[in-house]
Structures are given as C-alpha cells and as structure tokens.
Amino acid sequence: MPGSSFDPRNTYVHLAPSGASEIDTSGDFWGDLASGRKVYPGRIAMVLAMTGDFPHWERHPAGEELVMMLSGRMDVILEEPEGERPVPLGPGKAVLVPAGVWHRGVVHEPGEALFVTEGEGTEHKPIGDA
Q1: Percent of the chain having pLDDT more than 90?
Q2: How many structural domains does the chain have?
Q3: Is residue 4 part of a domain?
Q4: Residue 1 maps to a domain
Q5: Three state DSSP letters for 31-100
Q6: Closest to 24 (Cα-Cα) out of 9, 12, 38, 35
Q7: Is 3's pLDDT higher than 80?
Q8: Fewest CB atoms within 10 Å of the CB: 47, 86, 89, 105?
C-alpha cells in the first residue's frame, strides 16, 4: 500500500511509466513473468538473497538490467561474442547488464542484491547451451 513500509525482499515494486505499485509475488510469479502470462510494462525492482549461483542464463531484450550488490560477493557473467566475461561485484558495486545480453550470477560470498529489470520479455536458457 503506498505510504506504508514494506520489505523489498518479500514485495517487489513495479516501476511503471505512470507510477509505482507493489507486486504480488505469490504463486508462480517467475514462471508467469518468463512465459509472458504476466506483463509489467516498465521496470521491476526487488532485493534477492544471493545464496547460490543462478540456475540458468537469462536476458532482457527490452532493456538493461541494474544489478547492485548490497552485501556479499558475486560475479555477473556476461556472454559476449568473444566469450564469457565476469564482472565482479561486492557491496555497493553495480553493473548495467546491456539489453539482450545473456548473463548469469556466480556467488562467491552469500549476500543480497538489488535488481531493477525490465518487466517484459525476460528469457531463460540452460547453462551449457550455446
């Protein structure tokens, strides 16, 4: 509810062109987002616990993704034409993942990260796929 405090670890925020609102993440939120059953024009902001490596590659064709480490350490691996390139992140460090670039996270020290990502068109592929 606007004007009330909330925990961004449990409640995501839809940053729409017309304003911001909290997102219900119950049910199959990630499956609905990846399949296009749910669409959030604009951006989604969330804080996620980084306790293990990403289980897949992902990309956001509609726009860049901001990844900022709040605590812990993680490499964001970018899949580029020349090969994989790690971007090391520690507390207070961030990266803008370019639109359409496959990426994944490799956690070196568990912590939390802030993500601000496109609300539409996220794609996934298994690690190991070319």
Answers
A1: 63
A2: 1
A3: no
A4: no
A5: HHHHHCCCCCCCEEEEEEEECCCCCEEEECCCCCEEEEEEEEEEEEEEEECCEEEEEEECCCCEEEECCC
A6: 12
A7: no
A8: 86
Distance between CA 76 and CA 24 in Å, rounded?
A: 27
Assign residue 48 the CATH number of its domain: 2.60.120.10
Region of residue 42 (left: phi > 0; alpha: psi -120 to 50; beta: else): left
DSSP 120: S
Confidence at residue 2, expressed as pLDDT on a 0 to 100 scale: 65
Closest by alpha carbon to 113, among 73, 77, 59, 60? 73
Burial class from Cβ neighbours inside 10 Å (0-12, 13-18, 19+) for residue 44 reads: buried
Read off the tokens for 82: 């020349």
Rounded CA separation 123/106 (Å): 18
Domain that holds residue 70: 12-126
CB 99 within 8 A of CB 41: no
